[in-house]
Amino acid sequence: MRVLLWHGYLLGGTGSNVYTRALAREWSRAGHDVVAVCQERHPERYDLGGARIVVPDLPERLLPTFILDRYEGLEARLLTDFTPAQREAYVEANAAALRALAPADLVFANHVLLGAPVGAASGLAYRVKAHGSELEYAMRGNEELSRWGAETLAGAEAVFAGSEHIRDVLEEVAGHVDRVRIVPPGVDVEEFRPEPREAALAALIAEAHRDPDDGDERHPDPGNGERFRRFFARERPTVLYFGKLIENKGVHVLLEALDGLDARAVVVGFGDFRARLEAEAPPETLFTGALEHRHLVHLLPLCDVAVVPSIFPEAFGMVAAEAAAAGVLPVVSAHSGLAEVAAGIGQEVGSGVAPLLSFPAGDAPALRERLAAVLALPAERRRELGRAARRAVERRWSWTVVAGRLLE
User: Fold this and answer.
1) Preceding omega of 103 cis (within 30 degrees of 0)
2) The predicted structure's pLDDT at residue 218
3) Per-residue pLDDT tens digits for 138-185
4) CATH number for the 197-396 domain, one of 3.40.50.2000, 3.40.50.620, 3.30.565.10, 3.40.630.10?
5) pLDDT tens across 25-58, in order?
6) Statement: residue 13 has pLDDT above 80
7) CA–CA distance, 353 with 349 (Å, rounded to integer)
8) HEC profile for the chain?
9) What superfamily would CATH give domain 2-183?
10) Which of 120, 308, 340, 350 is spaced 20 to 30 Å from 270 by Cα?
């Protein structure tokens, strides 16, 4: 098949970026002719399996986003702050890029907004993947944007949601949508896998020594290599968080839960909440700044449990699934897509352990109890459960499985 994969952003960093990159790679590896239309300036950094990249020129170099961030060569502006004329110009520029690449067997567009309007304006048959951020941060409570999303989704051949939660949110925000298919996002089970501690630490330090030393908040903190060496010099129960450092992610709940717990924490990520979190963190907490997959695949095997404490709904528990693929039990807030991931892993680890994988959102004492129970398990038992958690990921959420289901 010839597939046009439209995505308005980059191919690394956030969930929808990784999602797009992985689909480009998997479909290309499967023998399809894939062109990804996006804003990635450095595709050579990624394994795309042979997929081609096309970067449309944006009118006034304006990029509509759901959370403000910095983009090379572009001015990021909240979608809700775009004028109708600016929205229309953006849509037409991207739709023209798709038309220029026609014909295609499949146009797969990411995000209800602005994927559905771009697909509709292209004049080609299109399908849309709802990711959740557009629904919660731009469309919810905005009647005009919600109506626009609903109108343009009506012309899609199918709409994909990553979880039952996102299907429900889609209906809340845009009204009833026909032809919705539930296909969860995936995990790179080749990258994320169990690794012996000594080898993992050596590889993590080596990756840290490759990091740029430029002070950019989107890059790892300078000097991480030596900090990792000192931090992991002795073994001690270690809890990991990785994700954005914003209030909605609930990292402060994890830090509160660590009070009185015989464990230390590693906090990975960047965001405007970092200074407050550093002020609240227990003494042995290590903040690393943003890390990439090349770091995380080695950091995870050095940790005993990963926590996803979001207090805001999540489309899918990607970081929980990545942790499980690395053989590390995740403990997540019991809501939205996170709860669905915990349930899937729970089926593999058994009814005795499954209740430990989730806790009521925002409830630090409950999280403390779950962490204490997981860390009290003998090391060999935790490794056994980690292998069961990985099996859940391989069967449900590997990218090969997900990419195949989408094309079906």
Assistant:
1) yes
2) 83
3) 999 999 999 999 999 999 999 999 988 899 999 999 999 999 999 999
4) 3.40.50.2000
5) 999 999 999 999 999 999 999 999 999 999 999 9
6) no
7) 6
8) CEEEEECCCCCCCCHHHHHHHHHHHHHHHCCCEEEEECCCCCHHHCCCCCCEEECCCCHHHEEEECCCCCECCEEEEEHHHCCHHHHHHHHHHHHHHHHHHCCCCEEEEECHHHHHHHHHHHCCCEEEEECCHHHHHHHCCCHHHHHHHHHHHCCCCCEEECCHHHHHHHHHHHCCCCCEEECCCCECCCCCCCCCHHHHHHHHHHHHCCCCCCCCCCCECCCHHHHHHHHCCCCCCEEEEECCCCHHHCHHHHHHHCCCCCCEEEEECCCCCHHHHHHHCCCCCEEEECCCHHHHHHHHHHCCEEEECCCCCCCCCHHHHHHHHCCCEEEEECCHHHHHHHHHHHHHHCCCCHHHHEECCCCHHHHHHHHHHHHHCCHHHHHHHHHHHHHHHHHHCEHHHHHHHHHC
9) Glycogen Phosphorylase B; (3.40.50.2000)
10) 340
Question: Domain map of the chain by residue range?
Answer: 2-183, 197-396
Q: Residue 209 has which token pair?
A: 């020594």
Backbone angles phi, psi at 285, to 5 degrees: -80, 135
pLDDT, one tens digit per residue, over 69-117 is 889 999 999 999 999 999 999 999 999 999 999 999 999 999 999 999 9
Examine domains 2-183 and 197-396 and report if their fold is the same.
yes
Residue 4 · residue 117 · CB < 8 Å:
no
Nearest to residue 269, comparing CAs of 310, 210, 321, 226? 310
Q: Are 28 and 48 in contact (CB under 8 A)?
A: yes
Residue 92's pLDDT is: 98
- The residue with tokens 């849309």 is 128
Tokens of 203: 């590889």
Beta-bridge mates of residue 239: 265, 305
Question: At which residue do the structure tokens 């997959």 appear?
Answer: 293
Helix pair angle (318-325, 336-349), 10° resolution: 20
Evaluate whether 151 touches 175 at the Cβ level (below 8 Å).
Answer: no
